């Protein structure tokens, strides 16, 4: 298997470092003038087994391509480069739902590149942890069980342990939806509402994730696994998370760097659209969407959530 990673942000670069333990890896980015240390992943020097290039056709000579681009940028990239990507195995790592099409990355790939094989790599993992070689477990999802097994083995290393599933829908929804809930958890902590409020948001957020995912055909056990609950726990509990930090800044009424990738903001809006289509109740995502758009204050949002009609758990 010849491997390339498309997208030289923090996560693409971290995956290149980790997977170079198994053999040569090509890392493609739009602007790669930084030589062996990517400013998006400071303090990490790329091993010799990683070749960095801004030449997409060269990188796409590999048969297996990991797509490490933000969810809202993926469709334009796929459509612009569909010819180059034809017939490849394309593995998405994006954790979001496309705001225009209301679909996850696997459906974007299937539409733009219909003859590509599709898989998803997701789960609890900070780029900095992976790049430092800290032990991490992820989910590799592929509807083709045989191909999934081959990819699971090819992309596991002694410190990167992949579990596999055929539930692509569940795996990518878990990764996308947890970012929305992490923003809400960050808001609660940033606003000084306390750890009990955070626990309530995480638990009710998981209920919301599970409800919507079930309507969309995901399996409950996938949501309860690494790609859902596992990543929800990580992202709602760490200031390493950009989604959590974004929410924290909102809650604390502080500025936040608009150039930072915060997948949960656009995904919250997409989730409210999807939930409307599916007749699912997603009060936390609706609150995050309004907060991200600035159409409700933190105080009002929390009051609205607390004053919903009382119901069974
Ligand atoms: N950083 C993490 O810890 C982490 C962990 C797991 C998954 N992810 C997911 O990986 C995805 C990427 O996140 P990241 O942390 O690498 O983000 P990042 O902001 O560090 O990097 C994004 C990269 O995408 C590139 N890019 C944007 N638009 C592009 C386009 N049209 N064509 C080519 N390149 C383009 C940017 O130049 C940048 O290099 C997100 O969906 C994120 O949720 C991130
Ligand atoms: O920094 P975040 O919030 O994008 O989270 C990174 C990863 O998705 C955590 O698994």
UniProtKB/TrEMBL annotation:
UniProt domain Glycerol-3-phosphate dehydrogenase NAD-dependent C-terminal: residue ranges: 167-302
Purpose of the protein: Catalyzes the reduction of the glycolytic intermediate dihydroxyacetone phosphate (DHAP) to sn-glycerol 3-phosphate (G3P), the key precursor for phospholipid synthesis.
NCBIfam families: PRK00094.1-2, PRK00094.1-4
Main location: cytoplasm
Binding positions for sn-glycerol 3-phosphate per the UniProt entry: 95, 123, 125, 178, 231, 241-243
Residues binding substrate: 95, 242-243
Localisation per UniProt entry: Cytoplasm
Record's protein name: Glycerol-3-phosphate dehydrogenase [NAD(P)+]
EC number: 1.1.1.94
Reactions the enzyme catalyzes: sn-glycerol 3-phosphate + NAD(+) = dihydroxyacetone phosphate + NADH + H(+); sn-glycerol 3-phosphate + NADP(+) = dihydroxyacetone phosphate + NADPH + H(+)
Key words of the record: Cytoplasm, Lipid biosynthesis, Lipid metabolism, NAD, NADP, Nucleotide-binding, Oxidoreductase, Phospholipid biosynthesis, Phospholipid metabolism
Upper lineage: Bacteria, Pseudomonadati, Pseudomonadota, Alphaproteobacteria, Rhodobacterales
Molecular function in Gene Ontology: glycerol-3-phosphate dehydrogenase (NAD+) activity; glycerol-3-phosphate dehydrogenase (NADP+) activity; NAD binding
The family this protein is said to belong to: Belongs to the NAD-dependent glycerol-3-phosphate dehydrogenase family.
Domain of life: Bacteria
Regions annotated as coiled coil: none
One CC-aspect GO term: cytosol
Gene Ontology biological process terms in this record: carbohydrate metabolic process; glycerol-3-phosphate biosynthetic process; glycerol-3-phosphate catabolic process; glycerophospholipid metabolic process; phospholipid biosynthetic process
Classification via SUPFAM superfamilies: 6-phosphogluconate dehydrogenase C-terminal domain-like, NAD(P)-binding Rossmann-fold domains
PANTHER family linked to this entry: GLYCEROL-3-PHOSPHATE DEHYDROGENASE (PTHR11728), GLYCEROL-3-PHOSPHATE DEHYDROGENASE [NAD(+)] 2, CHLOROPLASTIC (PTHR11728:SF1)
Pathway annotation: Membrane lipid metabolism; glycerophospholipid metabolism
Domain Glycerol-3-phosphate dehydrogenase NAD-dependent N-terminal: 2-145
